[in-house]
Amino acid sequence: MRALVVDHTAPAHLSPAEVADPIPAPNEALIRVAAASLNFGEVKDAADPATPDGTVPGWDAAGVVVQAAADGSGPAAGTPVVTLGTAGWAELRAVPTTLIGTVPDGADLGAVSTIPVAALSALHVLRRMGQLLGRRVMITGASGGVGRYAVQLAARAGAEVVAISGNPAQEQGLRELGAHEVHTSVAEADRPVYGVLDNVGGPHLAAAFAKLEAGGTLINVGRSAETDTVLPPNALLGTEGRHDRSIRTFFLLADPSADFSADLTWLAAEVTTGRLAPGISWRGPWTRYAEAVQLLMDRRLHGKAVLEIG
């Protein structure tokens, strides 16, 4: 089969190549990939000299089941699906059925491919915050993949959403997704928040933590700032009566036994019906992978990039 593989001699650290077809384990289905969405983390990993040449990257992909799992779990052959796993930038991928969601017939598989890392992360972080109805929730990095889904899901849960995006041009779009306030910096938010979903890290995390109300929680998802977080002296002691605040980290696949199939199925239906916007800002055939990778690495994409496979 054809795939994009890590090639450190290539400008984008990727090259098309012929590789062996995957052999599914008993709990895995074989998927013919129609579309894959790119995440900054996997693009950065591909460029890391420690990543071996020949590695097939790719966490997010959507397609059709060509061989159902031998153990009887998961969808039948011919079912359109969205998948989370490894080696997604290829014509075929083998995926555990716990990481497969079914997709409505006729769905745009490119749009659905944006779901696994971004939408699942947003959904599970917001769930960890508990009841959001009537509470203020801050989303940093709000114009990115996770951020855009988080704004929509938090607004639908009844939260007053405070979106932070360094690009002023994103304000109208974020308001259309459900943000009540849009700021270019955390400092501009003038009232405390109950929870923070932080995609940025570094100084943004420290500033967002200072905005938490008593009992509030900040959950860090990403480190797009690529700098260390340094809290000011006595930051953890609380100010103006705001004590019992916490910082938590999040990693989607921290529990290898987690079953995401129901959540992936629900999210796919929401995107297909238009109740969730995928936020695709670049889309093209996978022969244009170098263009998409460069845009991501240069931080010139707000939202998701989708490669159409085949």
From TrEMBL:
Residues 9-307 form the Enoyl reductase (ER) domain. Transmembrane segments: none annotated. Keywords: NADP, Oxidoreductase. InterPro entries: ADH-like_C, ADH-like_N, ER, GroES-like_sf, NAD(P)-bd_dom_sf. SUPFAM superfamilies: GroES-like (SSF50129), NAD(P)-binding Rossmann-fold domains (SSF51735). The keyword Oxidoreductase applies. CDD domains: MDR4 (cd08270). It holds the Pfam family ADH_N. This is Zinc-binding dehydrogenase.
